[in-house]
Each structure stands twice: as structure tokens, then as C-alpha cells.
Request: fold
Amino acid sequence: MLNHFFIPEHHLPDKTRWTMWESGLVPDLLPGGKAASAQAWLFQTWVEVRNRTDAVLSTTLPDEGVIITLSNFLPPAFRASKNQFITAVVADFLPHPGAQLQILQNAAHARRLPGSIFMPHWPQPNLIPRNPARGDCFETLAYLGDQENLAPELQSGDFQRELHNRTGIQIELRNPDRWHDYSDVDAVLGIRDFSKACHLHKPATKLYNSWLAGVPFITGRDSACAAEGTHGMDYLRAKSPADLINCLELLKNDIPQRRRLVAEGQKKSASRSRDAVRELWLDLLGNNLNQHACQNTFSKMAWQKQRLVFWLDRLFRN
Reply:
């Protein structure tokens, strides 16, 4: 079967960005929203695999074949026909009961949700690793993401002053045009909040990027990081602002431990590099999706069951 990547035309990159993608000059990713998810998950993947598979880009939903699209591009009451095999990339949205297969960006989520598989998000385009000339310097803690996804306590002036007074470390909240640049970063922050929420719908992308950049990563209780990394081995977990300061004091003062953390992360990074993610997609498109499609028996009962399962998943996703 032909693999279609379905993206409505108004969510495609503009001419300049399209040319950059095709030339291998990967542009910076857009901030959040449907267009950002469509370009990061669908268009980027199509560009990466199109020369090694039969994947095509479609701006209207095809009537037949294997169709990869965002779950949020499907109408609420949509149900795949017998000639369609819909693979819905959930990204930051919700699973869609009208699709036969859901692609999730969190391995822990995929383990508990029937009818789903896990696919790691692509690492940050144009990633610049930490400059080796920084050596054992430990002064800059960077947050490279939307500020709404960083714990409010860590954005307060009081906390940042306390951190600097105790450790000499500065927190830098980077603008999107520098999310790829780890050259002058000594540790990366990725704490969404200090609650017990496990954030099943969120990916471990910041962990991958930190591994690839050769920088220690500190997160909260994110299930995605726990599913792919090991606390104390290739990343650290902080349960409170005070615990975060303790983690940073450990990294600053115990240089051998810091080096071990980075070394273990770099071992893991090979499985989450751009080349590795491309091979995962090629395997999915070349083998697994066709196998799923050949076994497609998507009945009305199956659709109703998925609606219930996904409703329960949404209710308990944190």
C-alpha cells in the first residue's frame, strides 16, 4: 500500500521553509500549535524518508491506502473506511477513536494504551553540542522550551537569586531561535511542575537533546524520561525547588559523577539521533504499518470500544 502523509495545505511550511527543508538546511521548529506539530511530526518525517520509501505528501485526506496524519486533523466523528488505514500521530493532542493505530510520543503512555505504538520525537534540528573547551565549568543552567512548560517556581526572581547565591549558577530561559544551541550550556532544566503528575502525553525530547549535546539533564516526574532513561545514571530528577538546588550542588561539586552522567547519556544518544529516528520510521513505513493494515478489521464495535478506552485514558492521563 502507498503511504500518504496528510497535511492540510494551510499547515504546510511556507515557500522559504519548504526550500530549506528540501535543501537539508533544516529550519528552526515553529512554536506550539497544529502547524508546528504538522511540520515537526509529518512534514519533517516525509522529507527524511521520501527518498527511501513510497511515501507521498497529500493535502486532502486520501480515500484509500495507509494514511499518516495528526489525530487533531480528523473530524470528531470520523471513522476510517475499509479502504483506509489511518495512523494518527497524537503529538500533544488526544488519541482519535476513528484511527486504527495511534502513534504516541511517550513510551510509558504507549505501554498502557491499546491500539498504540511509541515513536520518539525527532531531536532538535541543527543541534549544537556543548563546547568541549568549557571543560568542567558549571555556571549556566538553561531552559530551552516554551516558558509555559517550566515550573512557575523556577521562573521567580527569588528562586533564581537563591540559586545563584548558593551555587553561582545562573538560569537562562532561552528564546526559540537558540533552542538548538547548547554550546555554552552546562546543565539543562526540564521540570514542568513539582506535582505528582506523570505527564503521559509529553515526550522526552529535551532528554534526547541533552544526551546528544553532552549536557546533564534535570527533570521532574515525567514518565517519558523514566521510561527511557535511568534517574541517577543518565539524568537527574528533582521533586522540589530545594531538591533542584541539591542536584545542582551535586553536579557542580562532584565532577566525576557529572562526567559519568554525561557519558551514560551519550551512550543512549545513539538510539535517539536523527539517523536512528529515521531508521525507526523507515521500518514502520516499510513493514509494520502494512502488517497492521493487512490485519485491519475495524468494526463499529471496535470504534465504540476505542472511544471508551480513549475517554478513560484522557480522564486518567496524568
About this structure: The radius of gyration is 21 Å.
